[in-house]
Amino acid sequence: MKYLIAEDERELQHSIATYLSHDANVCETASDYHEASEKLEMYEYDVVMLDINLVTGSGLDLLKKLKKQHKKCGVIIISANSSLDNKLEGLDLGADDYITKPFHLAELNSRIKAVLRRGQFGGSDSITFHEIRMDTLARSAYVNDKPITLTRKEYDLLLFFITNQGRVLSKAIIAEHLWGDDSDMLYNFDFIYVHINNLRKKLTIEGAKYIQTTYGSGYKFIAD
Amino acid sequence: MILSAIILFLYTKMLLKDQIEEELYSNKDRLEKLLIKDQSITGIPPIMMVEKVDHAEIIKLKDTLIYDPLQDEIELFEQLSETKIINGQHFRITVRAMVIESEDILFAIVFTFIGIILLTFFFLFYLNKSRNEKLWRPFFKNLDKLKTFSIKSNEPLNFEDSEILEFHELNNEMESLTVKIQKDYRNLKQFTEDVSHEMQTPLAILQVKIETLMNDVNISEEQFNNFSSFQVDISRLKQLNKKLIILAKIDNNQFSTTETISINKLLQESIANFVELAGVDIQLEASNEMNVIMDNSLAIILCNNLLSNAVKHNKDSNQIIVKIENSIMHITNSGDEALSHPDQLFDRFYKESKKSDSTGLGLSIVKKICNYYGFAPSYNFCENEHQHNFQIDFNPQVLNNF
To answer: Cys bridge to B370: B55, B155, B224, B375, which one at CB 3.0-4.6 A?
Structure first.
């Protein structure tokens, strides 16, 4: 997949690019409005990450431009402003998702994958990891084509693990993903262990032992 | 006043005395002339009297008391007597005039003075009153305006101008003061929001770098645990920021979209999420459907904050009960004892317990949302059942009347 990261903070840009290029993706970066505008005109991307506040212009203007040119790429807006108005404006203009700073790279990655799945941008409704298959339309999971019963949160967790396979996920990242942004309960981690353990049990029974504990308190979804 | 009354009294008395004396002398002269013509006259007693005497007497002026049979009282008379030799015979001519008594003069003066004083007093009183009313009217109008002054309002106070220099100056000062206060308040509010927004980017860089480091193969378990706890702290900062922004936005009236929200539905979804994620026992007992007109995101925040507060402070994983009755939502969780400062419960950064997983802003946001829409939030502790109860009366914004 080919991504464009239009973000004026170099540090952020670099970290995102490093994280995303792990899965053999191509990541290009743009540090200001003009660079981003030029690159968008010259090349095709699968997903574009647009910071609303680019130093020399607004990411929303770039989005308008993109939509005028009928480019077939997914757009995720990155903003430091969590206000609903901004979010709605972005989504109304045709953005596929909206993520507020600060975010976890794993969260951004899972949003990108979701955009790719939903759209015509080269994704599909089904995700396969070895013997595990997930149908994102029906929200169901199979191991060796045998359906496994998961609760909503276990399903979300499995999807999150598979999209961020091979990456270390700390409890804070998982908690934030499961609770969503609006929760006041993010610091209660005990419940995560319960959900992860339940999911692990259900997978292990079917012979899929991919959830590994790393560094004592982190998790990693990986095939040995 | 008293001094002038005394002077006036003495002066009047002197004038009268002079006048009487003059009159007496002229009467005596007239009587003398008559006497020269006709020695038989005896005068009109007691005012004028002519008597034959043996020897000459000196001219004499004195006060005398004489009984006046007409008025049946003793009156004070001024008396002038002189002897004259007419045709070799001594005659004593006595003329008298009734004197106005000092008391009468004094009484007249005092009475007149009191009359004048009273008249002046009433006149000045009403004159002043009407004049003052006119003068102070702008002042009181401005005072009323000042009483209704709201620091949060964007409208500057327009004071009524006055012709009086002091009031004019006061108005100018008050006007510039209130404008400045409002401006400072707006700046302060904007500052909170701006700072919170500006903090998001460095926080994002921090968070992303930590995640990159965590995925680095060469870290130890201890390092991972440190990074992991950094993430938790960043999350807390992020939540704190977010809540400060919400508070600032409510202050700035930035939640102007309103729609009909079904509190029942919202609670059901919220509770399902809490039950599934945190494994708590929450019971929803709704005796009626409650639809409230408000902003959707604020409604979610309101319910979530109250629920998470109940979950956080719930004792022994007892059942949490959420009730909807008429226009009131009750949320009840069990606890050991009543709060030590229930009046500060809804204040910013008030924490009853030293639990670190609380920003101390959740309930102050609840209060702010309630104030914004005119809902009535309240709290009480039920001693018998050891339960904390939170109630929100959605009344002004409730749509249907059951």
So the answer is: B375
Cβ contact, residue pair A80, B308, below 8 Å: no
CATH class for the domain made up of B165-251: mainly alpha
As a whole number of angstroms, the distance between CA B279 and CA B273 comes to: 9
- Overall pTM > 0.90: no
Q: What is the CATH number of domain A126-221?
A: 1.10.10.10
Residues 172-191 of A with CB under 8 A from B: 172-173, 175-176, 178-179, 181-188, 191
Q: Cβ–Cβ of A12/B362 closer than 8 Å?
A: no
Q: Which residue among B231, B236, B312 places its CB closest to the CB of A173? A: B231
Per-position pLDDT tens, chain B of length 402:
778 878 888 888 888 888 888 888 888 888 888 888 877 777 777 778 888 777 777 777 788 787 777 777 787 788 888 888 877 788 888 888 877 776 777 788 888 889 999 999 999 999 999 988 888 888 888 888 888 888 777 777 788 887 888 888 888 888 888 889 888 888 887 787 788 888 888 999 999 999 998 888 788 889 999 998 898 888 888 888 888 888 888 887 778 778 898 999 999 998 988 888 888 899 999 988 889 989 888 898 899 899 988 888 888 888 999 999 888 999 999 888 777 777 788 887 777 666 656 677 888 899 999 999 989 899 988 888 888 899 999 887 777 644
Write the residue in B206, B214, B236 that is nearest to A168 by C-beta: B214
CATH topology assigned to domain A2-118: Rossmann fold (3.40.50)
Where do the domains of chain B lie?
Answer: 2-100, 165-251, 259-397
CATH number of B259-397: 3.30.565.10
ipTM of the complex: 0.86
CB contact under 8 A, B277 and A186: no
